[in-house]
Specification:
mainly alpha; 279 residues; 83% helix
């Protein structure tokens, strides 16, 4: 599988800058990486299913019992191939003792494989047994033969294609967990900010209600003061009016008494003059 040259920039300095920046704020580039790997793995799985379908159409139908025995041989082949690939890797790294231990395990698995092949051979005709039975690798979608030798199996399971798909699938699982955790954290932060905003709005409404109550109270107090002031003014006005009325009545009575006194004096004087003249 050749995907061509990668279009991204691979620079250790940029990677270090990203790691530093990601500690201060979440850039969420993991989501883009997860989408890219998911599309890549989906294409691989699609090719795997297509290969399985083609094998089902071309190879002879066998019973469920024979199929289970063939599946067991395939599994043992995969175990041998994986162990041999691991032993070669340890030997290349200089860990000879661990490599020897794995090779001893390979011999044990080979013995189990030989017994499984005998059971499979005895369960079907010789003509059918000689036919190559293929299987599709679930990791990289490559074909595996039932009668592949150990070298072929080791080359497959230790090859770059198979190991590369293993790394991609492991990285995808890791990215899915990381993205899920970050999304959960983001949802919690969004929920916390919304709760804080709602709490601030409630406090603002309460403060506004208290301010309105205070304004209403001050307005009522001002109306009361104006009402009391108006009442005092009315009382003062009525008092002044009554005082003026009393003064007017007093002057009227004084004037009336003076007028009557003057009339009596003039009448008395007139009578005296008349009496003098008569005398």
């Amino acid at each position: 599988m050749d995907l061509g040259e990668c279009t991204k920039i691979h620079d250790l300095a940029l990677r270090a800058d990203y790691e530093i920046a990601s500690k201060e704020r979440d850039l969420f580039f993991e989501l883009d990486a997860m989408d890219h790997l998911e599309s890549f793995i989906a294409e691989c799985d699609r090719r795997t299913e297509l290969a399985k379908k083609r094998l089902a159409e071309t190879q002879e139908e066998i019973s469920a019992e024979v199929s289970a025995k063939a599946e067991k041989v395939h599994e043992l082949n995969e175990d041998i191939g994986k162990l041999l690939a691991k032993a070669e890797q340890l030997g290349a790294e200089g860990n000879v003792d661990e490599s020897q231990k794995i090779l001893m395990e390979v011999e044990k698995v080979r013995a189990k494989k030989k017994e499984a092949e005998e059971e499979y051979r005895n369960s079907m005709p010789a003509s059918s047994f000689q036919q190559q039975k293929l299987r599709v690798c679930e990791v990289c979608s490559a074909y595996l033969g039932l009668h592949d030798n150990d070298r072929r199996l080791a080359d497959h399971f230790g090859g770059k294609l198979h190991l590369g798909f293993i790394q991609i699938r492991e990285k995808l699982d890791q990215l899915r967990k990381t993205v899920a955790e970050k999304q959960e954290k983001r949802n919690q932060d969004r929920l916390r900010r919304r709760e804080e905003r709602e709490r601030e709005e409630r406090m603002g409404r309460r403060s506004g209600s208290r301010n309105r109550d205070r304004r209403r109270s001050r307005s009522r107090e001002r109306r009361r003061r104006r009402s009391r002031s108006a009442s005092r003014e009315r009382r003062k006005s009525r008092s002044r009016s009554r005082e003026r009325h009393r003064r007017h009545r007093s002057r009227s009575r004084s004037h009336s008494r003076g007028h009557r006194r003057g009339s009596r004096d003039r009448s008395s004087k007139h009578k005296k003059e008349v009496w003098t003249i008569r005398k």
